Amino acid sequence: MRKKELQIFVYEYDTLVELSESDQKLIIAAREASENAYAPYSNFHVGAALILENGVLIKGNNQENADFTDGLCAERVALFYANANYPNSKVEAMAVTAKNSNGLVKEPAQPCGSCRQAIVEAEVRFNHPIRLILDGANKIMVVDNAESLLPFAFKPVVLG
Length: 160
Ligand code: THU
Prior knowledge:
The chain is α+β, with helices and mostly antiparallel strands. Helix content is about 25%, strand content about 25%. The protein is built from three helices and seven strands. The protein has helices at about 20-35, 75-85, 115-125, and strands at about 10-15, 45-50, 55-60, 90-100, 105, 130-135, 140-145. Strands 1, 2, 3, 4, 5, 6 and 7 form a seven-stranded mixed beta sheet that branches. Strand 4 (about 90-100) and strand 5 form a beta hairpin. It binds tetrahydrodeoxyuridine. The site of tetrahydrodeoxyuridine has 13 residues, from helix 2.
Protein backbone atom coordinates (compact mmCIF):
# COMPACT_ATOMS: atom_id res chain seq x y z
CA MET A 1 0.00 0.00 0.00
CA ARG A 2 1.22 3.46 -0.81
CA LYS A 3 -0.35 6.53 0.68
CA LYS A 4 0.10 9.52 -1.56
CA GLU A 5 -0.61 13.16 -0.94
CA LEU A 6 -1.79 15.46 -3.68
CA GLN A 7 -0.59 19.03 -3.75
CA ILE A 8 -2.89 21.71 -5.09
CA PHE A 9 -2.03 25.39 -5.12
CA VAL A 10 -4.88 27.79 -4.45
CA TYR A 11 -4.29 31.55 -4.56
CA GLU A 12 -6.73 33.71 -2.64
CA TYR A 13 -7.23 37.44 -3.07
CA ASP A 14 -9.31 39.64 -0.78
CA THR A 15 -10.11 42.26 -3.40
CA LEU A 16 -10.32 42.54 -7.16
CA VAL A 17 -7.58 45.16 -7.39
CA GLU A 18 -5.01 42.69 -6.03
CA LEU A 19 -5.33 40.70 -9.26
CA SER A 20 -3.34 41.38 -12.42
CA GLU A 21 -5.00 43.74 -14.88
CA SER A 22 -5.77 40.91 -17.28
CA ASP A 23 -7.41 38.82 -14.55
CA GLN A 24 -9.43 41.84 -13.38
CA LYS A 25 -10.61 42.35 -16.95
CA LEU A 26 -11.73 38.73 -17.15
CA ILE A 27 -13.67 38.93 -13.88
CA ILE A 28 -15.38 42.12 -15.01
CA ALA A 29 -16.28 40.46 -18.32
CA ALA A 30 -17.70 37.46 -16.43
CA ARG A 31 -19.77 39.78 -14.24
CA GLU A 32 -21.09 41.48 -17.38
CA ALA A 33 -21.92 38.09 -18.87
CA SER A 34 -23.87 37.09 -15.77
CA GLU A 35 -26.25 39.99 -16.43
CA ASN A 36 -27.42 38.22 -19.58
CA ALA A 37 -27.90 34.79 -18.01
CA TYR A 38 -31.19 33.11 -18.80
CA ALA A 39 -31.97 31.67 -15.38
CA PRO A 40 -35.70 32.14 -14.70
CA TYR A 41 -35.93 28.83 -12.81
CA SER A 42 -32.98 29.00 -10.44
CA ASN A 43 -32.48 32.77 -10.35
CA PHE A 44 -28.81 31.88 -10.05
CA HIS A 45 -27.02 34.00 -12.65
CA VAL A 46 -23.64 32.66 -13.65
CA GLY A 47 -21.16 34.39 -15.93
CA ALA A 48 -17.98 33.05 -17.48
CA ALA A 49 -15.35 34.83 -19.53
CA LEU A 50 -12.33 33.29 -21.15
CA ILE A 51 -9.35 34.62 -22.98
CA LEU A 52 -7.81 32.82 -25.94
CA GLU A 53 -4.18 32.74 -26.98
CA ASN A 54 -5.10 34.94 -29.96
CA GLY A 55 -6.40 37.63 -27.59
CA VAL A 56 -10.10 37.07 -28.26
CA LEU A 57 -12.27 37.34 -25.14
CA ILE A 58 -15.40 35.21 -25.04
CA LYS A 59 -18.31 35.45 -22.61
CA GLY A 60 -20.96 32.92 -21.67
CA ASN A 61 -23.74 32.57 -19.14
CA ASN A 62 -26.08 29.85 -17.96
CA GLN A 63 -28.98 29.01 -20.24
CA GLU A 64 -31.85 27.27 -18.49
CA ASN A 65 -34.84 25.39 -19.85
CA ALA A 66 -38.31 24.52 -18.57
CA ASP A 67 -37.13 20.93 -18.96
CA PHE A 68 -34.50 21.53 -16.28
CA THR A 69 -31.97 19.00 -17.52
CA ASP A 70 -31.70 20.68 -20.92
CA GLY A 71 -29.99 23.82 -19.71
CA LEU A 72 -26.26 24.46 -19.83
CA CYS A 73 -23.79 26.07 -17.43
CA ALA A 74 -22.07 29.36 -18.18
CA GLU A 75 -18.60 27.79 -18.33
CA ARG A 76 -19.54 25.29 -21.00
CA VAL A 77 -21.51 27.84 -23.02
CA ALA A 78 -18.35 30.00 -23.18
CA LEU A 79 -15.93 27.11 -23.68
CA PHE A 80 -17.91 25.37 -26.42
CA TYR A 81 -18.44 28.65 -28.26
CA ALA A 82 -14.69 29.27 -28.10
CA ASN A 83 -13.79 25.78 -29.27
CA ALA A 84 -16.43 25.85 -32.00
CA ASN A 85 -15.31 29.17 -33.44
CA TYR A 86 -11.60 29.23 -32.64
CA PRO A 87 -10.65 25.53 -32.76
CA ASN A 88 -6.95 26.32 -33.10
CA SER A 89 -6.60 28.85 -30.32
CA LYS A 90 -5.68 27.70 -26.82
CA VAL A 91 -7.76 28.84 -23.89
CA GLU A 92 -5.45 30.68 -21.51
CA ALA A 93 -7.75 31.52 -18.60
CA MET A 94 -11.37 31.56 -17.55
CA ALA A 95 -13.14 33.67 -14.93
CA VAL A 96 -16.40 32.54 -13.35
CA THR A 97 -18.82 34.55 -11.25
CA ALA A 98 -22.34 34.00 -9.91
CA LYS A 99 -25.15 36.06 -8.45
CA ASN A 100 -27.99 34.83 -6.29
CA SER A 101 -30.89 36.87 -4.92
CA ASN A 102 -28.47 38.57 -2.48
CA GLY A 103 -26.03 39.61 -5.20
CA LEU A 104 -22.51 38.31 -5.86
CA VAL A 105 -22.01 34.96 -4.12
CA LYS A 106 -19.98 35.23 -0.93
CA GLU A 107 -17.62 32.33 -1.54
CA PRO A 108 -15.82 31.90 -4.89
CA ALA A 109 -18.08 30.53 -7.64
CA GLN A 110 -17.16 26.88 -8.20
CA PRO A 111 -17.57 25.17 -11.57
CA CYS A 112 -19.73 22.05 -11.32
CA GLY A 113 -18.22 18.63 -11.93
CA SER A 114 -19.35 18.45 -15.55
CA CYS A 115 -17.79 21.85 -16.29
CA ARG A 116 -14.56 20.79 -14.61
CA GLN A 117 -14.50 17.72 -16.86
CA ALA A 118 -15.13 19.86 -19.96
CA ILE A 119 -12.40 22.34 -19.02
CA VAL A 120 -9.92 19.51 -18.36
CA GLU A 121 -10.74 18.20 -21.86
CA ALA A 122 -9.74 21.59 -23.31
CA GLU A 123 -6.49 21.44 -21.31
CA VAL A 124 -5.72 18.04 -22.79
CA ARG A 125 -6.83 19.08 -26.28
CA PHE A 126 -4.47 22.06 -26.36
CA ASN A 127 -1.87 20.59 -24.02
CA HIS A 128 -2.10 23.81 -22.08
CA PRO A 129 -3.26 24.69 -18.56
CA ILE A 130 -6.32 26.92 -18.16
CA ARG A 131 -6.06 29.32 -15.23
CA LEU A 132 -9.34 29.55 -13.36
CA ILE A 133 -10.28 32.78 -11.59
CA LEU A 134 -13.29 32.26 -9.34
CA ASP A 135 -15.10 35.35 -8.19
CA GLY A 136 -16.73 35.86 -4.79
CA ALA A 137 -17.55 38.75 -2.47
CA ASN A 138 -15.46 37.41 0.44
CA LYS A 139 -12.54 36.37 -1.71
CA ILE A 140 -11.39 35.58 -5.23
CA MET A 141 -9.77 32.21 -5.74
CA VAL A 142 -7.33 31.32 -8.49
CA VAL A 143 -5.98 27.92 -9.49
CA ASP A 144 -3.33 27.21 -12.10
CA ASN A 145 -5.42 24.72 -14.04
CA ALA A 146 -8.75 22.89 -14.09
CA GLU A 147 -7.08 19.64 -13.15
CA SER A 148 -6.39 21.13 -9.72
CA LEU A 149 -10.16 21.05 -9.21
CA LEU A 150 -10.59 17.58 -10.70
CA PRO A 151 -7.72 15.30 -9.71
CA PHE A 152 -7.79 11.94 -11.48
CA ALA A 153 -10.03 13.38 -14.19
CA PHE A 154 -11.28 11.08 -16.91
CA LYS A 155 -8.86 11.68 -19.78
CA PRO A 156 -9.07 10.70 -23.46
CA VAL A 157 -5.87 8.65 -23.26
CA VAL A 158 -7.73 5.82 -21.51
CA LEU A 159 -9.92 5.36 -24.57
CA GLY A 160 -6.92 3.75 -26.26
N1 THU B 1 -24.48 26.71 -13.09
C1 THU B 1 -23.52 27.20 -13.92
O1 THU B 1 -23.81 27.95 -14.85
N2 THU B 1 -22.23 26.84 -13.68
C2 THU B 1 -21.84 26.00 -12.69
O2 THU B 1 -20.69 25.62 -12.65
C3 THU B 1 -22.79 25.58 -11.67
C4 THU B 1 -24.22 25.83 -11.96
C5 THU B 1 -25.86 27.05 -13.37
C6 THU B 1 -26.73 25.90 -13.80
C7 THU B 1 -28.11 26.39 -13.43
O3 THU B 1 -28.59 27.21 -14.48
C8 THU B 1 -27.86 27.28 -12.22
O4 THU B 1 -26.48 27.57 -12.21
C9 THU B 1 -28.26 26.64 -10.90
O5 THU B 1 -27.64 25.41 -10.74
